[in-house]
Amino acid sequence: MTISDSSRNRGTTRRQLLTSAASGVALAAVARDGVAAALAQDASPVATPVTATEAVLTASGPVTGVVLDGVASYKGIPYTVPLTDALRWTPPQPPISWTEPLAATDFCPDCMQVVGPESISSPPSEDCLCLNVWRPYADLMIDALLPVVVWIHGGGYVEGGSSIPWFDGTSFARQGIVLVSFNYRLGRFGFFAPSALLNNTESPYANYGYLDQIAVLRWVQQNISDFGGDPHRVTLMGESAGGASVIHLMASPAVEDGLFHQAVILSGAGRLALLDRPLESSGFGHPSATMVDNVFAASVGVDGSSQEALDGLRALPAGKLVGDLDLEKLIKRGLTGGPMVGVPAIDGEIVVGQPVDHFLDGTAKLMPVIIGTTAVDVPTHLPPTKLHPLSWFGPDESAAREAYGFGDRRFLGPTALIELNLDIGADMTMHEPAHFVASTMQEAGFDSWVYRFTYTAESTRPEQTEQIHAGELPFLFDNLEARYGDAVTANDRATATAFNSYIANFIKSGTPNSDAFPEWPSITPAEFDVMDFTLDDGPVFGPDPRDTVALVSAAQDRALGESQP
Fold first, then answer.
1. Residue 130 in 3-state DSSP?
2. pLDDT one-digit tens code per residue, 458-482
3. 162 inside domain
4. Model confidence over 54-74: pLDDT tens digits?
5. What is the sign, positive or negative, of the torsion defined by CA atoms of 253, 264, 243, 175?
6. Are residues 281 and 400 in the same domain?
7. Domain range for residue 293?
8. 543-561 burial, b if ≥16 CB within 10 A, otherwise e?
9. What single DSSP character describes residue 431?
10. How far apart, in Å, are the Cα atoms of 278 and each of 293, 332, 364?
């Protein structure tokens, strides 16, 4: 089915949402997705008494957790010393050891960010760098070490945290998996590069949030066997900025081999970085991280590049560093060409060039991958010619005009032009790069799979008939009550069970398939097939419902060829 066909049915929803994304309003709602509603209800009633676990001895000291319904959870385990005050903008360091058991029963604060009416459930703090572990317990345990999945939350690098209610790892643990989630520094705490910092500290610069993620992967290698996890069977999984983080960690030369062995990437882009900026050298329309962050430093009364200036920045109250930076403003800047703030920088050590370069030259880590998108996903990259976006398709311009639903129309009004740019942008940013990454892995000899998540909770219909960015996450964790309360239906549960089980099977065995669900074939690079978690018909494997993806793939390949010397 072409997009022009689907627009007569429910494509209007996609166009309306993408148009809203241009103003940033919808994206803010997408990113936070109703956490406050979940907090207003008791989403996880206690079915059986909660008991304490025996102590687990980590490299830093013993920890105890709690057991509920056969699953043990350990929350708020520090993986570094607090990186505050004089340690602000420094790499993680092992935490100071302790001898008495640490009661790891509650999430630590999520990292500093703007807190809106629908946001994280743990109050933010700069002292936030902790991780959480869920594992089977008692009758659910087996003698062998269990596969591990490490979850990286999204939020545009400026929002989010591990305490969001539907990120609970219980469903994975009940299937014989050890799940680790964690917080990493966000915004100007995690991605900051003023001259005072570059001139008075040692590299790597700018990408401290990525250093946190790497530190967690090293912690897993050192400690997870004590929780029953196998450090040689680690899947790295993330969504949005978390998915983009997985892509960057696959591509980064700073990440040693063996920290993770396969990947699940949800709406994480894959050709170009989801969000980034140059470190010091500004290009046309792309001011450098240093330039932008120097302007911010001056705005809070800190000028210059001396040690005294760095001391002044480190003495700033955490709230002043956050300012009003949130995902809505960040996406607005990205779509309108404004300077990017609080996102990764191409520093030459942690982030070296664009992901596509590493996937094509063989320097990225190669592994089995599940990668996919939601039906209505977000654009952070747009066609190069905004007034004539279809010209980017070159010899396929007529086919693209038809596929995007504009037929013989040669002139588009302002609203239609915005919609078209955003629709092409979603393909450029999300849908086509998922095919590209999976095809690259498949061609290197690693089976990989592509999905599209269309299903929407029945309580959200008819207003929402195609899934939006981040809307699949309660289904991924099979934790629908935390998001939808008692409005969850049997069809909702069936979709969550299927999606969660496919991913759990992959984590455990390297393939999503089992006898319980329809077969999900690995990708054939020349084809554009996906497993679509459909609105009404369950998981269905077949041609991508967006036939524009193949056209975008051809245009991307042409543009890449033209850029080669």
1. strand
2. 999 999 999 999 999 999 999 999 9
3. yes
4. 999 999 999 999 999 999 999
5. negative
6. no
7. 47-345
8. ebbbbbbbbbbbbbeeeee
9. I
10. 12, 19, 20
